[in-house]
Structures are given as structure tokens and as C-alpha cells.
């Protein structure tokens, strides 16, 4: 089977769904003629034309609101935010309209749209580096998807497009695996594992709300998302040499969350570390920790440990950014801690 | 204070059918009755939630909606009762929604500020100022993509034109020549803020020039003038020539919400605008032209009153919203959408 | 403050260069843009521009030296200015820790006084009936976790393999007898059987009068090696009962029950070296005399230590008769991987009431079947024993 980068896998998912379903349209800045700041939408304008691919002005709030209107009137828009940090310009149409319309209308309408955004720290400082999951996990009515491999990304995105609810599909810039036409090199990372690169050519779906055990193990459960899946696997390799077998679980979607897979693992290992690149305070790991502690308290040997970003805007200097973002050694240390009994 | 507001223009009935005019009068009175009855309901019994009355602004809603087809799209504001009624949303389901009944148009899940009826193209009153503007433009974009010939209309208040999203949307709608109409229901106040206190330039229709689209100001209490202007804007949109900004000058007779007394307004100003009440003006024009007589007009009034009474009875008889009703409406797992 | 002159990036693939020539001397006035030095690369010779106005204060790199991008070449400043390498700033005092987040915690209590037991460890201890005060952490002060409970259990099991009161025994005098092979293997098999098979026992009392009478009769005019023992008769009849209850002649097979075609009955034989169980094959096909002959031979060979390995293999069911030793009733342990074992006691004379009034004499023999509950329920066992009892109590009626 051919190997695709995540950028190529997402591009393929969008193109194939647009061929299959004429109601799917794409909106965003530089998505058409330029092919997208990270090349993800390349080729779409050429194939589908300007009624299906809309190059918008820099008006996040405006075009997000328009996407909501279009979604309620028979279309299925895919909206791209050029960086996840810019999604905050569109909080009102996302949180107050997209997420709430179905309930407020008493079920008369749905809002079948996908919001895509690249996130994660890559040396571009605070306003181009944030991980935004928690803001939207906290908004009922939305779903939140966090893929870690090209195979997962394609299947999950197809499911997201076909879902009748507003879905936030987050992509990590370090996982795109390709240079951006904006002039940057492909952003590499030594921890990134060659997993999930075999992507079937045909359309396939991965259901939302189904976790994936990326590595089975019996001593400690490490739950991780996006780039942190790769860091956790790298940490697991390091720990395996010391006889510690880590089970790495990738939830793949945060809302809905596959609690069954997670709790089954917790009941086996009794020790849990949750790793996410977003800010630790009130973040992804905080919510998962609460769920696990509430539902599996008597199965725990140790507190659920969160490994997340420091409670700070992401600083610019490389050493400072590295210290603020969870690294492989932080995961190793957290695993050692839950095993220690300290 | 002038003796006549400068935006008032005479009602010209030429070229309009009697049926259309009587229908417009009926729907304005229906909207008025809805608001007035609600006022007393809120005074005399415990009603859940709040309301924002459009009393005095009916001509904008009825004039605009009379120019639309049933499948055209409309978005509105927190002050949206008249817009819903003008678009054809059934008043008994609206009243039941006010009473938080399961038989309400939104199953009791939305309340006054979120009234909507997708089967009538009414995409929603919305409680966030300006939120409906891009949604209507998105509906217009959808119509363009699907080639359906529908238009998307947003009616919003003067205050909404200060929201960033107003400017973002008008720019995109004009840039792409979307089949949209943007209607400013300018009642000259945003809660307590008079227009001269919040606009660097108070002639809001001129904002259209910044986006290279036509901007028109009309007498918003003249239902015929509103209708004619809206009709032109709709035809322009359907021809693919793009959107129009239509500023309708009107006045809110009651307070901002519930029993708010509007102490920030000069009582003389309120009295002046009462004299230019849109329903009164159309009645007078119909009588003067001989198209209707007092008895006929009284019959219309009585019909509207009894329809609202029936709506209240319908609402009172309905089942209250239950504690667990909302769970099924958070996510759509059934594959059904508008 | 003086200005550093640093070798700039020279080009894509140029790593090093040679500083060929300085065009000025220390003390010379210089202006921004003056060509202050010449650099030779393998591609070309280039001029270096002076970065500031002032005086060339100090040249650090002599002509002819190899230089790399970023090297400090010279200082430019005001006349008489002294050049001090600016001390690099202290690294930012606060280090940002990613995890685990150290939220302020109350003063930790001294480890010695505070015993911590994790919820999972508590639950595991409760499941196994271990009092919490018997658990210890790996090191003082650490939290007691499931690993510590498992450690306790393994230790406990190791203890239980020895006699109870082990610690008391340490102080008593005696001698150690090492295990021979048979004893050790028997021990391991029986331990595994008890640990892995959920077994239960059912006892039925049968009237062995007819059997005892038959044994008497059949053994007139028989040689010793052809003698028909009560055990042989029991084997013969048990095989018949097993053919009527095939699931008793079976084994648990994971996702099913494997029912054997033949009854290969193992007979428990006590020898000086330990307990062995030689096997009679296909008993259901043998006559009583054949059963007796084979059984006698196997028992003799067992006692003489002359059994072949093949004699011990292939058993599908085991019978153990302690009647000759005077045992009235006992419960045997299943011989894995079989599903059942029959333990037979001695026949005891008994007087029992008769329903119509009066009494009669019987020879009551206890038949105890121990069965694998994954294969058999109580009703199945009761049915089998009922059939066996019937065989015994109606023997000779045909």
C-alpha cells in the first residue's frame, strides 16, 4: 500500500468526499488558488470550481457565521482556520450558534459542518502555537477530533464530514509531514513514529468515539493525543528496555470519548498518565483524569498524573518553548512516578 | 424636536392589490396583538424567561416578508416576534413556546429569543446581536451553490451594525454578489444608547458604499414603502446582481424588554412616534382611498384578536417541558437535517 | 559600547573560509560600509563590510586563519574604549516544569508515621481476605500498591505449600526426607488440579451385597492371577455406567467439552514408591475376566516397579478403591486433564428399615465422585452415580 503524509491523507479525504457528495464545500483563507497555508487543500479549486471552494477574506467571525447558515440550509461546509489560534476570532458563531442551534430550535435543524485548524507549538510563538481542545470540549453540541496518524486522519475526517453535528477537527503542524507553500520546511521531530502511514485509497470511515490502543502493555496506561502519541511511544520504547511495559491509548476523539477502552486498560494496569500538549490547567488531561478517578477510583494504585503544557502562553525562545511543552522525558518521569509509590 | 420625523413619507397605494394591502394590515395587527397580549401576560402571571417587544415596528417585518417567497430564508434578532409572524410562523406554536410548552415551535427548548420555524424558512430569532447577519448570508451562499434561486434576508437592529461581523459579512456578500438582503430595523436606540451616542455617522445606509453595494433608507413605519424597497432588493438579488442594504427608520414604542420603562427617552419623542404608528397610518390610507371601510377594518382587528386568544388557549392547554426533554436535542444522531 | 564584527553567513554550502587580509590596523578610523577585510572561500574572494563607525579597536583573528560563520573577528568602537566580553546573562531563573504540575501541597507527614494504601490495593486485599495491616510497601514510606499485595500472595502461597505452623516447626527436631520423583510429580499434579479445576464431590451409598456374593462365586476354581477382585468388578461396572453417561468420561477443552470414545480407566495403586495410576484401555470392550486379568497384571507390575510408560498414559477416568484399607468414605482429587474420579469405600454391613415394615441387611458401600464443574453439574453426577448404583444392585439379574 502507498504511504501518505497526514497532509496528503486529509487532502484525499476532502477530495473524495467532495466527489461523493455535492453538498460538501470548503471555505477559508488561501484555501483555493493557494492550496492552503499547509498545502492541505491543494488541487480542490482546480477540480471543483469556485462554487465549491471559497477563498475568504480575513473575516473568521463572518465566514464561520456564513458556514453555520449554509450548514442549516442543505450544505456541509468544511471551514479552515489558518492557525487554531485564530479560531478565537470566531468563537461567537461556533459556541453561540453552531453548538446551540439544534437545541434551541427543538431539533428542527442540525449544523453539519467541520472546522479544521492546525495547532501545536513549532517555534512561531504564542499566537501561532496554542492547542485549543479544551475550549471546545467544554462546549456541548460540538465534537472534537484529534488524529495522530495519516490513516486515522483520513478515516476520522470522512466520519466528521458525514456527521450531522459541528465537528472540530484539529491537526498538528508537526504531523503534516510536508513543506508548506508558505515557505516553511517540513517541520520534523525525532520522536515522530512511522505509524499509520499506509492509507487505503478507497473511502473508509473510523467511527467517532472509538479509541485505538497504539501499543499494548501491562504495567502503566498512558493516554495521549496527536503528537503526544508519538512522544508516548518513544517513551514506551525507552521504558521497555528497562522492563516497563507501557500501554499507549490514543482516544482519537475527545468528544465523544471512548471511556470503555480507557477504563478497561486502567483496570488492568492500575496506573495512568494522561499526556496532552494543551495547557495543563483545566485541559484535556484534567477532564480525563476526573472521568477516570470518578469511574475507576478503586482500580487505581496512584493518582492520575497529567502531563501537559505549562500554564503559560507559549514563549518564543527555543529552549523556553521546549521547557513549556511536554517532552518525551516528561512522560518517562511521569510513568516512573506512578510506579514508584511515592 | 421636529413636528414630523424627517424620514416619514406618505403611503402610496398605487399599483398594489387590495388583497395584498389587507393582508399586510392583518399581519401587522396580528403581530401587534401578540405583543400586547404578551405584555399583559407577563404582568399578570408568572411567565418563564423574558421578552423583547417589537411594538411599533411591525411595518418593517411585514413589508419585508411580503416581498419574499415562503422558501426564502430569514434571520432575525432577540426582538423577533413580529418577524416570525410576518414570515408565517403559526402564532399558536409561537405562544406555546413563550409558555415553555412541549407544543411550542421549538419544543420549549428555545424561548422568545430563539423562535424559529425551518419549515417556513425562518432560521431563527437569535439572542446574540448581529449573529443572524452572516447566517442569512450563508443561506444565500447555499442558495447560490445549489442554484435554487432562494434569497437570504437578515433583519437586524441599528446596534448590530456596529458589530464586526456586520462589516465582514457585507464585504463578503458584496464581493461574491450573494443573493442577500440586509435590513436595518433602525429604532434609533440600542437599549439605552441613542444613535447619536454610538455612531460616528448616523446615516447607516451609507455604510453600504464602503462595500460597493446599494444602500437605501426608507420610512420604516410605511409598510408600503418598505414593501416596495424590499421587492426591488429581492429582484436584484434573484437576478444575481448582489445584496442590498435597506435601512428602515422606525421606533420602539415599548421598553427594551418586559416592563423596562425607557427612562432614557424623552416622553415627547415617544408620543410623537405614536402618532406615526404604522398600523394607524395604513388604516388611514385604506380608509381615505376607499379600499376599505371602518366595519371591514374592525373585522380585521377582531379576527386578529381572536386568533391570538386562540393561541393563548392553545398554549395554556399544552404539556409543560419535562426535566429530561433536552437530552435528545444536543446532538443529531438521526441523519435528519433541514 | 563596542561593536562586534562577526563573520556573516557566506552562502548556502560554504562552511569555512580563510581571512586573507585585513585592510586596516587597530587604531585606524573606520566607517560603516568600509571594506575592512578580505575573505577567501573555495568559490571566491569577498570583502567584509565594517558594521559601525568609529575606530578599529582590536583584531582577534590573524591573517591566514580559517574562520567559520559566527566567529568574532574584531572590535570596533570609540577611541580608547576598552573591550570587555559581555558576560552572558544568567539563564532565566525560573524553570518551567511541564509535569507533573507541582501544586502547593500540605506539609508531607513523616513517611514513618503515615501508612498509604492505594484503592486498588485495598480492593485486591479484600478479594483475597488479606488484613490490611499485614501488607508492607517495597520500601518504608512508599504507597502500598497492587504489586505489594501480589507479592504478599505469592509469599503466602509459598508458605502454604509447607505444613501449617511452619514457623513453629522450625524449632522442632526431625529429619528431612527428600521427595522422590513420583511423590514430587504427584504433588505438582494435585496442586495444579486443585488450583485450576473447580471440583466438587457427590456421594451415593450403594448396596454391594450382590457384588460381594458374585466375587465369592466367580472366584471358585480360579488361579491367583485370574482372580476376580471386587475392584475389577467395580471397574467393569463403572465402565458400563460411563457408557450411559458419556460426559463423565470427558475433559474440559477450553471452548468445549471433549468426550472420549473409549473408557480408559486409570486405577489408583499404592506402592512403596508412591501412588501410581496404571491404565486399562477400552474397558467397555473387555469381558469381566479380561478386566480382572489385566488389572491383576498392572497391579503386580506397579508394585514391582515394572510398569512401562505406556501403562500410565491415556487415562480418561480414574477409580480409587480404599475399601481394602478399611476406609468407609473419602473424596479424591481429579487427575488432570480428566473430568472426574471415583473414590470407593469399604462395604459395611448395615441394617436398614424396609418401607413395608421390618428391616433388611445390606452391605453399604460409599461411592464418591469428584467432578470438574466446568464439565458436569450435580445432576449429571447424581445421574451417573445412580446408574452405577443400579448396575451394582442389579448385577447378575440378566
Describe this structure in words.
The complex is a heterotrimer of chains A (342), B (338) and C (398). Chain A is α/β, with parallel strands linked by helices and 342 residues long. Chain A has two domains: 6-175, 3-Layer(aba) Sandwich (Rossmann fold), CATH 3.40.50; 212-340, Rossmann fold (3-Layer(aba) Sandwich), CATH 3.40.50.920. Helices cover 35% and strands 17% of the residues of chain A. Chain A has helices at residues 6-20, 44-48, 60-71, 91-98, 101-104, 133-137, 150-162, 227-240, 259-269, 284-296, 318-324, 328-340, and strands at 24-28, 53-55, 76-80, 114-119, 143-145, 167-172, 212-215, 220-224, 246-250, 253-255, 272-279, 305-309. Chain A has a seven-stranded mixed sheet, with helices on both faces. A five-stranded mixed sheet of chain A has the order 7-9-8-11-12, sandwiched between helices. The model of chain A has no long low-confidence stretch (mean pLDDT 95). By secondary structure, chain B is an alpha/beta fold. Chain B has a single domain, classed as 3-Layer(aba) Sandwich (Rossmann fold). Chain B contains eleven helices and eight strands. In chain B, strand 3, helix 6 (164-175) and strand 4 (180-186) form a beta-alpha-beta unit. In chain B, helix 1 runs antiparallel to helix 3 (81-87). The longest helix of chain B has 27 residues, at 18-44. The radius of gyration of chain B is 19 Å and the shape is globular. In chain B, 52% of the residues are buried. Chain C has 398 residues and is α+β, with helices and mostly antiparallel strands. Chain C has three domains: 3-77, OB fold (Dihydrolipoamide Acetyltransferase, E2P) (Beta Barrel), CATH 2.40.50.100; 121-151, no CATH class; 194-393, Chloramphenicol Acetyltransferase. Chain C contains eight helices and 19 strands. Chain C has helices at residues 119-128, 146-161, 166-169, 181-196, 209-218, 230-244, 288-304, 378-393, and strands at residues 3-6, 16-22, 29-30, 35-40, 45-49, 54-59, 65-68, 72-77, 199-207, 250-252, 257-259, 265-267, 269-271, 274-276, 279-280, 317-321, 340-344, 348-353, 359-372. Chains A and B meet through helix 3, helix 4 and helix 5 of A and helix 5 and helix 6 of B.
Amino acid at each position: 500500500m502507498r504511504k501518505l503524509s497526514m497532509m496528503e491523507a486529509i487532502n484525499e479525504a476532502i477530495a473524495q468526499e467532495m466527489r461523493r457528495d455535492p453538498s460538501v464545500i470548503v471555505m477559508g483563507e488561501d484555501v483555493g488558488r493557494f492550496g492552503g497555508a499547509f498545502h492541505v487543500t491543494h488541487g480542490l479549486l482546480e477540480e471543483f470550481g469556485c462554487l465549491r471552494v471559497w477563498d475568504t477574506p480575513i473575516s473568521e467571525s463572518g465566514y464561520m457565521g456564513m458556514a453555520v447558515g449554509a450548514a442549516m440550509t442543505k450544505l456541509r461546509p468544511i471551514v479552515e482556520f489558518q492557525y487554531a489560534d485564530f479560531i478565537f476570532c470566531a468563537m461567537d458563531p461556533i459556541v453561540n450558534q453552531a453548538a446551540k442551534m439544534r437545541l434551541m430550535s427543538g431539533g428542527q435543524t442540525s449544523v453539519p459542518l467541520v472546522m479544521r485548524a492546525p495547532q501545536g507549538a513549532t517555534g512561531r510563538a504564542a499566537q501561532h502555537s496554542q492547542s485549543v481542545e479544551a475550549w471546545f470540549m467544554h462546549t456541548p453540541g460540538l465534537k472534537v477530533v484529534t488524529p495522530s496518524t495519516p490513516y486515522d486522519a483520513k478515516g476520522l475526517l470522512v466520519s466528521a464530514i458525514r456527521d450531522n453535528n459541528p465537528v472540530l477537527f484539529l491537526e498538528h503542524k508537526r504531523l503534516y509531514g510536508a513543506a508548506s507553500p508558505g515557505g516553511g520546511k517540513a517541520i520534523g521531530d525525532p520522536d515522530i513514529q512511522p505509524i499509520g502511514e499506509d492509507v487505503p485509497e478507497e473511502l473508509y470511515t473510523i467511527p467517532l468515539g472509538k479509541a485505538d490502543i497504539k501499543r499494548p502493555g501491562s504495567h502503566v496506561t498512558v493516554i495521549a493525543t496527536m503528537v503526544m502519541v508519538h512522544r508516548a511511544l518513544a517513551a514506551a520504547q525507552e521504558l521497555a528496555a528497562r522492563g516497563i511495559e507501557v500501554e499507549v491509548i490514543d482516544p482519537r476523539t475527545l468528544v465523544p470519548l471512548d471511556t470503555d477502552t480507557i477504563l478497561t486498560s486502567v483496570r488492568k494496569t492500575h496506573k495512568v498518565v494522561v499526556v496532552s500538549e494543551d495547557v495543563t490547567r483545566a485541559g484535556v488531561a484534567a477532564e480525563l483524569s476526573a472521568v477516570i478517578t470518578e469511574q475507576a477510583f478503586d482500580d487505581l494504585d496512584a493518582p492520575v498524573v497529567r502531563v501537559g503544557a505549562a500554564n503559560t502562553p507559549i514563549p518564543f525562545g527555543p529552549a523556553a518553548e521546549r521547557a513549556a511543552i511536554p517532552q518525551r522525558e516528561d512522560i518517562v518521569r511521569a510513568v516512573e512516578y506512578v510506579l514508584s509509590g511515592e | 424636536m421636529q413636528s414630523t420625523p424627517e424620514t416619514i413619507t406618505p403611503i402610496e397605494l398605487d399599483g398594489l392589490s387590495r388583497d395584498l394591502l389587507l393582508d399586510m394590515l392583518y399581519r401587522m395587527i396580528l403581530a401587534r396583538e401578540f405583543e400586547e397580549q404578551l405584555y399583559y401576560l407577563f404582568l399578570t402571571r408568572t411567565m418563564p424567561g423574558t421578552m423583547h417587544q417589537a411594538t411599533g415596528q411591525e411595518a418593517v417585518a411585514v413589508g419585508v416578508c411580503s416581498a419574499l417567497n415562503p422558501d426564502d430564508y430569514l434571520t432575525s434578532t432577540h426582538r423577533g416576534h413580529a418577524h416570525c409572524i410576518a414570515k408565517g410562523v403559526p402564532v399558536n406554536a409561537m405562544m406555546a413556546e413563550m409558555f415553555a410548552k412541549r407544543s411550542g415551535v421549538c419544543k420549549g427548548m428555545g424561548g422568545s429569543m430563539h423562535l424559529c420555524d425551518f419549515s417556513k424558512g425562518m432560521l431563527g430569532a437569535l439572542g446574540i446581536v448581529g449573529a443572524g447577519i452572516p447566517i442569512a448570508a450563508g443561506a444565500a451562499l447555499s442558495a447560490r451553490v445549489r442554484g435554487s434561486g432562494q434569497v437570504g434576508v437578515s433583519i437586524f437592529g441599528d446596534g448590530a451594525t456596529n458589530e464586526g461581523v456586520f462589516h465582514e459579512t457585507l464585504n463578503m456578500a458584496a464581493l461574491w454578489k450573494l443573493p442577500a438582503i440586509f435590513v436595518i430595523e433602525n429604532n434609533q436606540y440600542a437599549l439605552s444608547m441613542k444613535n447619536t451616542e454610538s455612531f460616528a455617522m448616523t446615516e447607516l445606509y451609507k455604510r453600504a458604499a464602503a462595500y460597493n453595494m446599494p444602500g437605501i433608507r426608507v420610512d420604516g413605519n410605511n409598510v408600503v414603502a418598505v414593501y416596495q424597497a424590499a421587492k426591488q432588493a429581492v429582484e436584484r438579488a434573484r437576478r444575481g446582481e448582489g445584496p442590498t442594504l435597506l435601512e428602515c427608520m422606525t421606533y420602539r414604542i415599548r421598553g427594551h424588554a418586559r416592563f423596562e420603562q425607557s427612562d432614557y427617552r424623552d416622553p415627547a419623542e415617544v408620543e410623537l412616534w405614536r402618532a406615526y404608528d404604522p398600523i394607524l397610518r395604513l388604516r388611514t390610507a385604506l380608509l381615505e382611498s376607499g379600499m376599505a371601510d371602518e366595519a371591514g377594518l374592525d373585522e380585521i382587528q377582531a379576527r386578529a384578536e381572536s386568533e391570538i386568544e386562540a393561541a393563548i388557549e392553545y398554549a395554556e392547554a399544552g404539556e409543560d417541558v419535562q426535566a429530561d426533554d433536552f437530552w435528545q436535542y444536543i446532538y443529531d444522531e438521526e441523519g435528519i437535517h433541514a | 559600547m563596542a561593536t562586534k564584527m562577526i563573520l556573516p553567513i557566506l552562502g548556502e554550502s560554504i562552511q569555512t573560509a580563510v581571512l586573507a587580509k585585513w585592510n586596516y590596523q587597530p587604531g585606524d578610523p573606520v566607517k560603516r560600509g568600509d571594506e575592512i577585510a578580505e575573505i577567501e572561500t573555495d568559490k571566491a574572494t569577498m570583502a567584509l563590510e565594517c558594521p559601525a563607525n568609529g575606530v578599529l579597536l582590536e583584531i582577534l583573528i590573524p591573517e591566514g586563519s580559517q574562520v567559520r560563520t559566527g566567529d568574532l573577528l574584531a572590535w570596533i568602537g570609540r577611541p580608547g574604549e576598552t573591550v570587555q566580553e559581555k558576560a552572558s546573562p544568567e539563564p532565566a531563573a525560573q524553570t518551567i516544569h511541564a509535569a507533573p504540575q507541582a501544586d502547593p501541597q500540605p506539609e508531607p507527614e513523616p513517611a514513618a508515621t503515615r501508612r498509604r494504601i492505594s484503592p486498588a490495593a485495598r480492593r485486591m486485599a479484600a478479594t483475597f481476605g488479606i488484613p490490611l495491616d499485614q501488607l508492607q510497601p517495597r520500601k518504608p514510606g512508599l504507597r502500598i500498591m497492587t504489586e505489594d499485595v501480589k507479592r504478599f500472595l505469592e509469599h503466602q502461597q509459598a508458605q502454604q505449600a509447607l505444613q501449617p505452623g511452619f514457623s513453629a516447626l522450625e524449632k522442632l527436631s526431625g529429619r528431612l526426607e527428600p521427595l522422590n520423583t513420583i511423590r514430587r510429580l504427584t504433588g505438582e499434579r494435585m496442586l495444579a488440579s486443585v488450583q485450576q479445576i473447580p471440583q466438587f464431590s457427590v456421594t451415593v451409598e450403594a448396596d454391594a451385597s450382590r457384588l460381594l456374593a458374585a466375587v465369592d462365586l466367580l472366584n471358585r476354581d480360579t488361579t491367583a492371577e485370574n482372580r476376580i477382585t471386587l475392584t475389577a468388578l467395580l471397574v467393569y461396572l463403572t465402565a458400563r455406567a460411563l457408557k450411559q453417561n458419556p460426559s463423565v468420561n470427558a475433559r474440559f477443552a477450553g471452548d468445549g467439552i471433549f468426550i472420549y470414545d473409549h473408557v480408559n480407566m486409570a486405577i489408583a495403586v499404592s506402592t512403596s514408591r508412591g501412588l501410581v495410576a496404571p491404565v486399562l484401555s477400552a474397558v467397555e470392550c473387555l469381558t469381566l475376566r479380561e478386566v480382572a486379568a489385566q488389572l491383576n497384571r498392572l497391579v503386580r507390575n506397579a508394585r514391582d516397579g515394572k510398569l512401562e510408560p505406556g501403562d500410565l498414559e491415556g487415562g480418561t477416568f480414574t477409580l480409587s478403591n480404599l475399601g481394602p484399607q478399611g476406609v468407609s468414605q473419602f473424596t479424591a482429587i481429579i487427575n488432570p486433564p480428566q473430568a472426574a474420579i471415583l473414590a470407593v469405600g469399604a462395604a459395611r454391613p448395615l441394617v436398614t428399615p424396609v418401607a413395608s415394615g421390618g428391616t433388611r441387611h445390606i452391605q453399604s458401600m460409599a461411592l464418591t465422585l469428584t467432578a470438574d464443574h466446568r464439565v458436569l453439574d450435580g445432576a449429571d453426577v447424581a445421574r451417573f452415580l445412580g446408574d452405577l448404583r443400579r448396575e451394582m444392585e442389579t448385577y447378575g439379574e440378566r
